Amino acid sequence: MNIFRAMKPERVYENLTKMPWQELYNEGIRTALLDFDNTLGPDHATEPEEYSYKCIKMIEETGIRCCLVSNAKSGRSAKIAEMLKIPVVTYANKPGTSGVLKAIKLMESTPEKSLMVGDQVFTDVIAGNRSGVRTFMVEKLYKSEIWYVLLKRPFEKLVRVVGKF
Predict the structure, then answer these.
(1) pLDDT (tens place) for every residue of the chain, 165 residues total
(2) Domain around 151
(3) pTM above 0.85, yes or no
(4) Number of folded domains in the chain?
(5) Any idea what the CATH number is for the domain that residue 53 is in?
(6) Contact 123, 36 (CB under 8 A)
(7) Which end of the chain has the lower number of beta carbons within 10 A, N or C?
(8) DSSP conformational letter for 18
(9) Taking a C-beta distance cutoff of 8 angstroms, is the pair 44, 37 a contact?
(10) DSSP string computed for 24-74
């Protein structure tokens, strides 16, 4: 796979509430693989916020099932997923494919019926594209991020300018 193709999402949205979930269901998507940090909730939060619950409800009302796919430690992400009442794959190893493929299997889905959504090019987008699923990107929810994500953002911005997304 071309390195720049691996970094480009199919679409970019402001946030999860702006995505056309019913349209995606009509197109055959049955599984939403969701990053948590700055996609579904605040970066490094220990519990979901109202927005998190709203998004899960909105997505699942269309018939699409949700699964949290997180590079976070199992304790934090498992607690969040339990509170949201959705399955989780922890230590997902994004941008590797193992976590995404494990989530697809856990959800008894296929890559063709799955969609990866996250806020980072170098983890979520690359992992989704390399796994053969449709991949959408959302803008980060909050400015506050852990230091190592902040270090990646200027490079991500360059990729987005060059890739025109």
Answers:
(1) 666 778 899 999 999 999 999 999 999 999 999 999 999 999 989 999 999 999 999 999 999 999 999 998 778 999 999 999 999 999 999 999 999 999 999 999 999 999 999 999 999 999 999 999 999 999 988 777 776 766 777 678 767 777 778
(2) 3-163
(3) yes
(4) 1
(5) 3.40.50.1000
(6) no
(7) N
(8) G
(9) yes
(10) HHHTT--EEEE--BTTTB-TT-SS--HHHHHHHHHHHTTT-EEEEE-SS-H
